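Throughout our pipeline, every protein is held as a single compact record rather than as scattered files. Nothing more is needed to write down the fold, since each code stands for a local backbone conformation. For reference, a complete record is included directly beneath this paragraph.
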Amino acid sequence: MSVEKILSREELIIRRRGWKDNGRRVVFTNGCFDLLHPGHIRLLEQARALGDVLVVGLNGDRSVRELKGPGRPLVPERERAEVLAALEAVEAVVIFEEPTPREMVAALRPDVLVKGGDWGPEEIVGREEVEAAGGRVERIPLAEGYSTSALIDKIVKGKQFDK
């Protein structure tokens, strides 16, 4: 069941030890994932292909509001986590409330840290921690034409979707 993939930080660290003991390479990415779209799916599948286990750090509701404004998130954190956990590519989901995932990345010490190509190498939070632990950072090009903000705009303005 997918909800079993939603872990606390403590549960995740315990699982991480087991994965490491079994030689499994852990990949971590994070985001708000407010309205899941094909761009998200492609990023997550490509991230998963870089290792054996994909962990998704999910910005909690308070964190999303701080980043995106008072009208966000549209979907509560627990529901966003459940949708992510249902994806085959995702091994675990962990919700964090901090403005950035730095603490989560430092605690998890993934082998690979993944962000979308819209992030510059120096902007990627947790890069220093991952590289200092011997891991690497990968940037995955974004799928053109997909954006949660654009999707919300279309919904609000009642626009037709391009076919």
Remarks:
- The CA atoms of residues 68 and 131 lie 29 Å apart.
